[in-house]
Protein 1
Amino acid sequence: MSAPLLEVSSLVKQYPATTAVDSVSFAVPEGICFGLLGPNGAGKTTTVEIMEGILPPTSGEVRYRGEPLGARFREEAGILFQKTALQDFLTVRQCIALFRGLYTHGLEVEEVIRICALEKLAARDARKLSGGQQQRLLLAIALVNDPAVLFLDEPTTGLDPQARRNFWRLVESVKARRKTIILTTHYMEEAELLCDEIAIMDGGRIVAQGPPRRLLSEHFADVLLELPRQDFPESARALPLKLMEAADRVEITTDDLEATLRTLLAAHVPLTHLRIRPPNLEDLFLELTGKELRP
Amino acid sequence: MIRRLLAVFHARNLEFLRDRGTLLFTILLPIMLVIGMGFVFGGPQRPLFKVGVLGAPGDAHAHLFLAERYVQFVPLPEQDAALHKLTHQQVDLLVDFSGGTRYWVNTDSPKGYLVEKLLLAAEPGAHREPVAGAALRYIDWLFPGILGMNMMFSCLFGVGYVVLRYRKSGFLKRLHATPLSAFEFLSAQVLSRLALILFITMILYAGIGAIIGFHSAGSVLLLLLLAVTGALSMIALGLTIAARFSSEELVGGLLNVLTWPMMLLSGIWFSLEGSPRWVQWVAHVFPLTQLLDAARAVMLDGAGLTQIAPNLLYLAGTTLVFLAFGAWSFRWRID
């Protein structure tokens, strides 16, 4: 395994009324997409903003290539914030050129425009872009210095499904250029698709960390059965099954599907609305915290 | 409808009352304005005319003119300096009671014309002395003040609100994630605003000169140098206010706290001749006063670089101090 590009050690961020980040430590190897997952308020954005050098930690530290964050990090990091406003009255090309001018090294403006498929929008006023187009522009700005590490903080929140998928394709193309990506998201589908490794956060702490498939295989059997809550009688709770309760459904994990189905049938549990699917990261979060990601 | 209106009214009041800084300045500003106006315009009777008195102050019993109401008599011991103030409309009339009453008047001053009538009504035998050199019109004296005032508003409000908007929108936060330093950002803002202000000031200078004409005895290049240093100082002053805060109302209040005293005390509209010494001392702390004093010296008296060097140094020094303070206290994001 290559040496970590970024190391986060015992990070704490305290506000008067709350501890947003509570002793968080992890390392990000070069060339992977590392996902920070969790619901709103889990501490993802605070952690990432400390990693970006935007927010000072209460204690702990972040090291980039073995050194505290400094001038080199600022030159080599690309950042896409959850919300960013740009200067008024500038075209897409002018916005990119503005940020290109802030870095010593980087890509040509036209190349960034091409990478982010902004050719047809380059002369348009940046304020007149749709949500998806605006995220592509912000990604272009984040890529303008040809960054070694790219931070994407909830990049697809608020986008429609098509725009989200388009954005994922762009991120995959960036990944293919061997960039290290730090992604925060509460979309599990996004994390499963893009991330090589994830850390799941809840209440300011990391509750699980590792490659998504390994985490799923560690915590779940092969398949997951899903039943509407109203179809699952109280008496069935005593059955020898591994249950997880979500707001509107009951989930059962098993490595012996036939035996589980026989048990349910014997207990007269109606199976009309039964769904059988492989477990995903959303299930993992429910399993680890007893809470749903998007209640 | 009333219920909705009251709900919004209540929420807005809460927002305002909980913004402590804004609340404080909303209360303090009018108090400061009242105090400031009191000092500048106050006193038992606001004088309409300023008359310089050469040499001995004169006996009010012997000279009825000294008993005139609404006339402020300002002792001016040096005749040359006193005549300079007369030609520059800093006093409306100059009178000497030693021996027979002699007086000098600026024939281009409407106030001089009126106060001369008062003098002659009280002392018909007063002898009018010729004023050597060209007397200046009020517009010649006022013109640098108007240019300076325009620069002050553009410098302070133009920069202050722009930086505040950048901070509120998150644009500053995004810039913070780049290698750009606070000093670089602030310097860029200063230079951008400077270019704009110089452009506008040059148009005003040329335009007003062409339309009404004005007296300018000194070097245009020196005036340009003054405009650059003066604008730099006031832009940097605006940035010290915008460097930290995120509330439009608070920043607006602070900018008003700066601009109003400068409006009243920097000598834009009238000379502070005869004001208490400490008021004149306070006025000289303001960059606008330094700028106007030097600009008038160049335009009205043809002063050279040596004469206005102290003003230039003051303006350059305050620029560095304000920029350094702005960079030190600068906040990229809302706390």
Note: The CA atoms of residues 71 and 263 of chain B lie 24 Å apart.
Protein 2
Amino acid sequence: MIDIHDIWKIYDVGEEKIEALREISFKIERGSFISIVGHSGSGKTTLLSILGGLTKPTRGSVSIDGADIWSMNDKDLSSLRNQKIGFIFQFSSLIPTLCAVDNVALPVIYRSREHRHSWKAVYEYAEELLSTLGLKHKLKAFPSELSGGQQRRVAIARAFINKPAIIVADEPTGDLDSQSESDVMEFFSKINEQYQTTFLLVTHNLALARMTDKVHNMKDGMLLHSNNGGSP
Amino acid sequence: MNISLTSLALQNLTRRTFRTYALLLAIAIVSGAIFSTSTLMWGVNSSLSKGLSKFGADLLVVPKGSMISMKSALLTGEPSLFYMDGGIMQKIASLKGVKSVSPQLFLTSVEGNCCVMGNAFIIGFNPKTDFTVMPWLEDKLDRPFQMDDVIIGATNSYAVGDKLFFYGQDLTVYGKLGRTGIGLYDNAIFLNIDKAYSMAEESHKLPGVSPLKLVRGSVSAVLVQTEVGAKLPFISFTISKDPDIKVITAGNIITSVRQNLVTLFGSTLVMSLILILANTLMISAIFSTIVNERKRELGILRALGARKTSIFKLIVYEAAMLTSMGGLLGVFLGIVIMRIYQRTIIFNLKELNMPYLWPPVSSIVMLACIAVGAAVIVGIGGAFYPALKGSTLQPYDAIRAGE
């Protein structure tokens, strides 16, 4: 379970203080499929990065399974990001010197040896993920040889390589055509059901949001209200 | 190949190939200079130490005014002729603390029918009192040393058993010395001092030959071996009271060669140290740029679970790999250049009165490791601060900074 309590994020821009997030509190049950919608600059991505342990809130706490992630040291927080959270960014986030399958396997190098499967198993799973996302023929392709949509699907595969409990996705279907978008959402849904993986999606796409269990609306750094979505 | 932090760092080097090659070359030049200079210095030093340890004499007594010629003859093996009365030997032998004395008489051959070769450095020695030549025979005939025998230095092309002739005297190569790096021992031809006197006398009888100008009983140098615990400075001082002679110690020779070494290589070493510093700063500047270029990637790696130390290691590994490859390239180029120009190098060192022997392989390997190690330290030192900065970036800030 994720417990977000009284989160504030204030940026100092010169002498001005900008409140990117204000007084945000909510809870997310394990296996939830949640989306956060709002206009650009409403604080969605900032909130997602705080939940994912990427940026520290000015105030407030985020607990995952009872542990306050912002009280953790670098080792524990990095381990949490590696093993419990899978990130899908809204921009191209692949390492240009690695081929698709290596990009997918990349997070595994940061796992401790005792938590790591054999490399053979890792690569088999990476290939399986890429195949599921329609990239079986692009395993050895480098990012520069892939289209924007293909790169996005590699990044999606990478987010699942460590079988995380939580997927944090910022505009995960941004570069995808409608068919690919539908395929990806179906894949998310399958993983969600199969492993009780929690999904947190940030999106402008209201149609996509409606496919989730719950939709949180954000405006000017505040959580306005939540709606129950439809079944994805 | 499975992905790892090391392979990731290695692959990063392939991103901007021109930058990588330029850095590689810069590091190669510095490490190559360090390696070559230290190898040459090591060679001069070790050949000097090795040669002087074989020399076996604590003091060398020569006529006044011939000290520089003697040092030159000793180090380069170029013939040098000077003489003094051999009576000095008895005076020296009678001094307290002197264990033994042995004379050497310097001659040279001339071009023409009288001699098997011209400008050979021929040295007469007394086999009965000698303690510097006979002990270092590496190869010899299976019989005692005789009056018509010669012993040749290692660089001489003749072999044991070969026949030679100088000033009408037929001689047999009795033995060959091991290589010392000291010119006098490597180049000279040693023969019985009595034979040398006879040779000098015979030279006067040969038609069309410039005779050897020395008289029986004269010597060029007296080698002095002292007893264990004897006070060398005191003995040296006592001998030096004679105004017609000069005393040379092994220390004198080493000091003069080292002075030349410092003059020759000192500036190169200083330049190398300046280049090391410059390269460290260059690596630092370039890796600061690299960290800035890859901020978003570093943020992504942090999001994927990389710890601060992993990011630090990634950047430092990249620099260390680059500089170690540069170091290896430098050592390789250094070896190639030294091998190509080895004759020129040895000739020039000889001109500066510096003996030279290539260091043994183990020493060359050690010097190569030091040069590569220095290159790696340059890499780690240069990348340290950028790596620290890169590792302490907040993941989200790094990702956004790269947008």
Note: The longest helix of chain B spans residues 250-293.
